[in-house]
Amino acid sequence: MPAIHKLPEVLINQIAAGEVVERPASVLKELLENSLDAGSRAVEVALLQGGVKQLRISDDGCGIERDDLALALERHATSKIASLEDLEAVGTMGFRGEALAAIASVARTRVTSRATGAAHAWRVTEREREPVPAALNAGTVIEVEDLYYNTPARRKFLKSEGTEFGHCDDVFRRIALARPDVGFQLSHNGRVSLRLAAGDAQRRVREVLGDDFMAHCRAVTAESGALRLTGFAALPAYARANRDAQFFYVNGRFVRDKLIQHALREAYADILHGARHPAFVLFLDMDPAGVDVNVHPAKTEVRFREGRAIHQFVFHGLSRALAAPVQAAAVPPDASRAVEIPAYAGPTEQTRLAVEEPAAARFTWQGGAGASTPTAPRASHGAWSDAPPRAGGFPAAAMPPPALPDGAAGAPLGYAVGQIHGVYVLAQNAHGLVLVDMHAAHERILYEQLKHVLDGTPGVQRLLIPAVFNASRIELATAEEHAETLLRMGFDVAAAGPAELAVRSVPALLGRANVADLLHALLAELRDFPASEVIAARRNELLATMACHGAVRANRQLTLPEMNALLRDMEATERADQCNHGRPTWTQLSMTELDRLFMRGQ
Fold first, then answer.
1. Into how many domains does the chain fold?
2. I need a surface site. Which of 62, 104, 327, 600 has the fewest CB within 10 A?
3. Does residue 329 belong to any structural domain of this protein?
């Protein structure tokens, strides 16, 4: 066996570079963080050939003193910490003192810096560590050329120029999102790719992620003691096929943490299903002593000292923002074209009830003979009418649309003016036209009500005549095995014969639902997930199935009071912007958008 010997310093640095310098984007990340630690207010990045040929970063920060320049390229040399206490409460992006040394070991590196108050700038390179005079107005310029020129095996692992630039662009945007108070510019092969002026967080998020993200997001603000969660979270309508629009920061540092990721997934679990991924830009501010950032050289992994508390804080903070009722989330799409809702003139009794009935009132779906429609408790205003539908597709009460009531401008979803093919409700609010998918909206309303009911004692409606329907042997066995679970949910189910089931009671919320269809679907769910623990975990999925079967179906003609009652319920229901499957329940067309459709003013 060879004798034990010390590694040469150059090889030590090159081994360290394998952890810190994976590709040009890794170099960019480390140098951008150094610029921010230096208090820079403007940072410019110039890349050649994806950053492989050259990567140049200039800033207007505090600069580096002449006597410190040579040390800046040495391993474990830093100005940011000096003791274990500093490390345990580090507030800077960098602190290890490894990045510049690692970079200099695998690339031609030149550092030019002029410290605040210095007569002129000084320069050092990876070969010439003795500072020499240089010309620079202020701040620091770092040039990194020919990455991996001296380790050709590592260079072979780099991808195409376009791919490497794409990774650099991702890092640049990620860091720019965290510091909206700093101006950034990125150029590639002499052409400016992105220029971001200093501003506020909302402007920076809009510039980086675009108008579409901002149009589909909710502002997030939550505080508890020293913990603060802020930012923007997109609704399911903006869900992505991958995680390219997920940004989470802890004290300004971008992190990918399993505990945080779990909390975020749980917050979206009730509104986003399937293989889609949510989009968000969230910032968690906390006491630096409560988080260990010294877990991995890349510093994207952290460890929380109170992990469970952090998990619950992030989960509940994001859940509350996503669950906000419509009135708290509705933002005028175009305030400049907002119109005044006319005063109410001569209401009918039905419309008066729909607008003015007290919050404690309840409504009932009034279906025809044999209609499969639910009876549901009201969350706010509303009344249901017996007015017969018109053959033409609009309820009699909707033709012609009446004048809208005083105070309609305060109703985010406005007031109904008609219905299309028994599927969509049309409403007018202060900003234009609102389109509502009535089945999706009612499904969400029922689902949220079912959750509240199940948390307490469920209301049960006894059936005067038990509903009997055909059932397979496996359905009979499933109903018998899970009779107690079904009873807790409000279903009294028992065998009525060798191939039949009888239902003697149902949840009061679903008193008019198609019992046979509903039970077939529920028993299928219970059959696939038989263990009681699993059933408890999938409670919401079971309730979603119940709500879907109980919600009003397409081709159900509604009267104006019924439509308005649905709108008021949506405004009072959490997560009413999406159905249980993550699809939108309503959309807004502003007056400007309507004008554009008809080329008004052109």
1. 4
2. 600
3. no
